[in-house]
């Protein structure tokens, strides 16, 4: 009791020894022992708590604690031995029931005993370092009942049997299981672990080892995974129903190991249903299941990822190297995009958007796209195709989606400069022939390229757009000044292209019709009048013309042709028949170009505004050409395309390649100089590494080429080799 | 198990004190007794006899029970104990585990 007032106050020791009845202790103990019996026999209502407590209190107070404690041990032990016998004698299913009931009784009795012996627990037990009454009761229960030789193994087997039954689909008394397991847990985690959990895990491992072997023999991968998943969930559920939560990790580990880890390679590579087939058939559910199960196992995801990667690489490699595919660049790129979409979808639906899988996907694409040296060209052609015609009637968002996808492929390219080269060519054609569907889409793509590769990459492309715009203004200005004097003549539209920004093409001269050359001269003098010091040269090979022609029965058509074709057709204004030689002489178009041009005018069905004699597919130097009076077409406007090689022919390809290589040289040199300028001294391998790093965003430089460039720089005295260490280079300021 | 709201404490000389269950729970002894799972006589009737505690002391103890609950709920007042009761009171406190 607290708050007592302080006062000089002394308790005197008893002067005389308190004489007790020598039988006192025995008598008191008899009372308590009797009480304990009564408690075990459910007769407590006749007992007075106060009296028992007082007796125990007094015994402890009079230093009979030891007697009380040991008496308790003996009495309780004898009771537990009886209990043990009765549990033992229970047959079959009754065994667990009996055990459970007796445990509940013992527990209750133990609490009551603890309550009446509370004073002993409070004073005697701590001072003599004995086990408190309640724990003592549990220990005695453990030693006398659970560890009784006839009960221990029987209990374990019964429990394991029940679990086995439940695994094979029978319904068992989960409540009873829970109580018994709870009892083992109450007796201490070591009891639970040693008397149950360890064997449980062993038996489970055996069970699943056998079962997984059976499953894998008769099921396909998807079914197997379904079964494994179900088993795993069952075990987790089992733990939540009647096992210690700490067992969850252990038992799931067992299932994972036996059902998944041990069979991983076999599952992944299973014929006709393994991972590859799942990927092929877009089995999102199965893939998701595989991902979730394999994630639990060490190396599981790595296995899945590796197989996926090699599969993508394999199929991708086939795709890019298939000679059939290479014939149609648009289809080729579309296939790549489809492939990418497919795996993106798989990763997002089944693989939880796992970053490592995305990276694997990206690296696989990067790997196989670059296997085909023409990939940059094809991607550019794909864009060309889309921007020429593919995007009509498609909403702006969809355009963006397509462009973004293309950019994604672009990112995989190692030779981005090659792409740039082709893109420039294709863009030039698009711009000059006025074939762009959407200016916005064009610009949007340029912006994307710019964010991807920087200003340098797109500056020329942007220059091309600027040229187009200024040309428009120039032509307007030209007609504003000279419109009146030009009157009814043909209309001229000139695009003034800045050299350097546009892909250079050799200018092929030709004789323009008189009306036109006059007009061109006027424009030239107008242009040079406003911009002094410039030079204009006509790129007739890149132009187009719209001409009106009247055929028999007064049928009129507007023909959309190239400049060369226009020159040829204009000749037929004065005559109906011309020989090849005559045409060649009049126009001075180089032979290959002229042949192509005549072929498209005379040999294409439905567009043959000329007739050729003799009729044949190819143009011979002795052929004659006649105006085809009988030409007819459903359309008023007729577009006569030149037989253009859309995809590059082999020599053209070589040429582009060479140009690319040429362009790379100064870039490599610039990179070397930049690096050496800041480092002053550097060894060969490091230079190579640094240069590769710097140029990576544009292309992957060849080390041999870098070496050549370094040598060239040494020759020109930008660098020198170190006198002692020949591998070291010095920068010469 | 229905619990009555009060318990009756009877001193050695027969005086009966009826106090709230909650107040009685201040004593660990009474708490155990009243909440014990196996029905002891006291648990069933709610009557506890103390053959070794006098009326004076038991009264003081009951007072203490109420005071203690107030003290625990934040009302800090002094609990007055007459010096001559101190020893007996301490023994009773030890007994009741209060």
UniProtKB/TrEMBL annotation, chain A:
Coiled coil: none annotated. Residues 374-602 form the Cullin family profile domain. GO terms for biological process: protein ubiquitination; ubiquitin-dependent protein catabolic process. InterPro entries: Cullin, Cullin-like_AB, Cullin_homology, Cullin_homology_sf, Cullin_N, Cullin_neddylation_domain, Cullin_repeat-like_dom_sf, WH-like_DNA-bd_sf. GO terms for cellular component: cullin-RING ubiquitin ligase complex. The keyword Glycosyltransferase does not apply. Keywords: Isopeptide bond, Ubl conjugation, Ubl conjugation pathway. GO terms for molecular function: ubiquitin protein ligase binding. Belongs to the cullin family. This is Cullin-3A. It comes from Spinacia oleracea (Spinach). The gene is LOC110806212.
From TrEMBL, chain B:
SMART domains: Skp1. GO terms for molecular function: protein-macromolecule adaptor activity. The keyword Metal-binding does not apply. GO terms for biological process: jasmonic acid mediated signaling pathway; ubiquitin-dependent protein catabolic process. Pathway: Protein modification; protein ubiquitination. Belongs to the SKP1 family. It comes from Spinacia oleracea. One of its GO terms (cellular component) is elongin complex. This is Elongin-C. CDD domains: BTB_POZ_EloC. It is found in: Nucleus. Keywords: Nucleus. Residues 6-66 form the SKP1 component POZ domain. It comes from the Eukaryota.
């Amino acid at each position: 009791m607290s708050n007592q007032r302080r006062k000089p106050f002394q308790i005197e020791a008893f002067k005389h020894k308190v004489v007790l009845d020598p039988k006192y202790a025995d008598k008191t103990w008899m009372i308590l022992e009797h009480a304990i019996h009564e408690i075990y026999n459910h007769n407590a209502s006749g007992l007075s708590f106060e009296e028992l407590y007082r007796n125990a209190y007094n015994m402890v107070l009079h230093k009979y604690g030891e007697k009380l404690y040991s008496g308790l041990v003996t009495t309780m032990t004898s009771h537990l031995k009886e209990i043990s016998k009765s549990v033992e004698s229970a047959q079959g299913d009754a065994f667990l029931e009996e055990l459970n009931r007796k445990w509940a009784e013992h527990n209750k009795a133990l609490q009551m005993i603890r309550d009446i012996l509370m004073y002993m627990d409070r004073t005697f037990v701590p001072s003599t370092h004995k086990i408190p009454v309640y724990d003592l009761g549990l220990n005695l229960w453990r030693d006398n009942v659970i560890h009784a030789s006839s009960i221990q193994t029987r209990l374990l087997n019964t429990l394991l049997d029940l679990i086995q039954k439940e695994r094979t689909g029978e319904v068992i008394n989960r409540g009873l299981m829970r109580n018994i397991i709870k009892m083992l847990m109450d007796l201490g985690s070591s009891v639970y672990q040693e008397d149950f959990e360890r064997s449980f895990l062993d038996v489970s491992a055996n069970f699943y080892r056998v079962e997984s072997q059976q499953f894998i023999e008769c099921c396909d991968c998807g079914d197997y995974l379904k079964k494994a998943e179900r088993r795993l969930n069952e075990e987790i559920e089992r733990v939540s129903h009647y096992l210690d939560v700490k067992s969850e990790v252990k038992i799931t580990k067992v299932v994972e190991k036996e059902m998944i880890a041990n069979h991983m390679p076999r599952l992944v590579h299973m014929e006709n249903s393994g991972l590859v087939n799942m990927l092929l058939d877009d089995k999102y559910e199965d893939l998701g299941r595989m991902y979730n199960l394999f994630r639990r196992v060490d190396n599981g995801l790595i296995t899945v990822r590796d197989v996926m990667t090699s599969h993508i690489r394999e199929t991708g490699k086939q795709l890019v190297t298939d000679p059939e595919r290479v014939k149609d660049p648009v289809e080729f790129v579309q296939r790549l995009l489809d492939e990418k979409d497919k795996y993106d979808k798989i990763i997002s639906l089944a693989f939880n958007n796992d970053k490592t899988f995305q990276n694997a996907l990206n690296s696989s694409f990067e790997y196989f796209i670059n296997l085909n040296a023409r990939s940059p060209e094809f991607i550019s052609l794909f864009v060309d195709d889309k921007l020429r015609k593919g995007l009509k009637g498609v909403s702006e968002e969809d355009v963006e989606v397509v462009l973004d996808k293309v950019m994604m492929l672009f990112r995989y390219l190692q030779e981005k400069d090659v792409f740039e080269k082709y893109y420039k060519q294709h863009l030039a054609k698009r711009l000059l022939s006025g074939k762009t569907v959407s200016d916005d889409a064009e610009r949007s793509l340029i912006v994307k390229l710019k964010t991807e590769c920087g200003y340098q990459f797109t500056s020329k492309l942007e220059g091309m757009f600027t040229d187009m715009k200024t040309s428009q203004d120039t032509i307007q200005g030209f007609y504003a000044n000279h419109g009146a004097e030009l009157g009814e003549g043909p209309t001229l539209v000139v695009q003034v292209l800045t050299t350097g920004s546009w892909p250079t093409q050799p200018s092929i001269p030709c004789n323009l019709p008189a009306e036109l050359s006059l007009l061109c001269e006027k424009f030239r003098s107008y242009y040079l009048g406003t911009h002094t010091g410039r030079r204009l040269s006509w790129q007739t090979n890149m132009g187009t013309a719209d001409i009106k022609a009247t055929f028999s029965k007064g049928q009129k058509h507007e023909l959309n042709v190239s400049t060369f074709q226009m020159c040829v057709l204009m000749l037929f204004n004065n005559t109906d028949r011309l020989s090849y030689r005559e045409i060649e002489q009049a126009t001075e178009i180089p032979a290959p170009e002229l042949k192509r041009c005549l072929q498209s005018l005379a040999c294409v069905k439905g567009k043959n505004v000329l007739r050729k004699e003799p009729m044949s597919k190819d143009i011979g130097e002795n052929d004659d050409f006649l105006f085809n009076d009988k030409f007819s077409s459903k359309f008023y406007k007729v577009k006569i395309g030149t037989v253009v090689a859309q995809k590059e022919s082999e020599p053209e390809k070589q040429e582009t390649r060479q140009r690319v290589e040429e362009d790379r040289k100064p870039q490599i040199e610039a990179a070397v100089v930049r690096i050496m300028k800041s480092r002053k001294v550097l060894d060969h391998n490091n230079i190579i590494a640094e240069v590769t790093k710097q140029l990576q965003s544009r292309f992957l430089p060849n080390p041999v080429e870098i070496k050549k460039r370094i040598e060239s720089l040494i020759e020109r005295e930008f660098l020198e080799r170190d006198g002692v260490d020949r591998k070291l280079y010095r920068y010469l300021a | 198990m229905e619990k009555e709201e009060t318990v009756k404490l009877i001193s050695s000389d027969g005086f009966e004190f009826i106090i709230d269950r909650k107040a009685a729970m201040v004593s660990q002894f009474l708490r155990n007794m009243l909440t014990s799972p196996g029905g002891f006589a006291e648990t069933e009737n709610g009557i506890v006899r103390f053959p070794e505690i006098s009326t004076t002391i038991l009264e003081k103890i009951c007072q203490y029970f109420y005071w203690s609950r107030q003290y625990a709920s934040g009302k800090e007042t002094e609990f007055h104990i007459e010096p001559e009761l101190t020893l007996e009171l301490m023994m009773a406190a030890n007994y009741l585990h209060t």
